[in-house]
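Quick one:
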Amino acid sequence: MALSHRQFFLGLTLLATSGLSINAAPNAQALEPTQNLTVEISGLRNQKGLVCIALFDGATGFPTDASKAVKNSCFKVASTTQAVNLGPLKAGRYAMSLLHDENADQKLNTGLFGIPREGIGFSRNPRIRRKLQFEETSFDFQPNATTVPITVKYF
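Output:
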């Protein structure tokens, strides 16, 4: 059924005066699907202290400046293997760093030559021989891939 110009404009007038609004450009965030991201942590050597996770969406701040992360949180260690839900996340490229903060001081304690005294881990579980870059640990998060494993390493 085709509308005449008059019927079309009359409909628009009724819609405009009814208190309803039309958004010509809908909110992009509302259209992007989100899904919860779960981190499966293994290899914790004990149940002391905290586990701190920082999730980055770019190289800025990675891996140590959690203030630049899109999500970061610390929680008490409940088990040497556990799953943590980081909540809803939009599809995109991310990288995670993890700290087993055994003394709960919320910083990475190091020894001689800057070697970590506490456990650390990264998404994609790379070998750790130097400071890692975002590209080496990043992963593509899609709404159908909701789990990222991280194995904690101690030196």
